[in-house]
Amino acid sequence: MIISVVPKLIGEGIPLFASKPAESTWTLAKVQQFDTGLVNLTYDKQENQ
Length: 49
Description:
Layout: E1 2-5, E2 26-33, E3 39-45
Antiparallel strand pairs: 1-3, 2-3
């Protein structure tokens, strides 16, 4: 999963997910920062144990 963070205010905001997803565990795998201020956060889903 990649989440992009854009440094802009957009009123009330837009929900990241339409409904509450099932609980899961994710680990931050990579961060990419760009000159525009955009940041990409890449997460890897952990397998159920």
